[in-house]
Amino acid sequence: xxxxxxxxxxxxxxxxxxxxxxxxxxxxxxxxxxxxxxxxxxxxxxxxxxxxxxxxxxxxxxxxxxxxxxxxxxxxxxxxxxxxxxxxxxxxxxxxxxxxxxxxxxxxxxxxxxxxxxx
Length: 119
Prior knowledge:
Structural class: mainly alpha
Number of helices: 4
Order of helices and strands: HHHEEH
Largest sheet: 2 strands, antiparallel
Strand order of the largest sheet: 1-2
Oligomer: single chain
């Protein structure tokens, strides 16, 4: 009996999915036409596949530049002994150093967004 009721449930679910598909026939046709147009565009301009690798090159080079800059900013400060580990040292930052690091971080994010939007 469980198999019989389970098959009725699955049949009802299949009928519901069929009904939803029939109700969305217009939207499915629009999606197919958009995909055809996209295929025609890519077939006519295959150089569009060069855009992501070029953008990745720019983003990685910008990240490396930013990483060097942030390391220089992070090294600014007074070197003192770490109170928890006496054999280690730490860099004590001022508020200006923290603000410079935040400014650099947001500058990196904004420039990264600009590179993505241009590419």
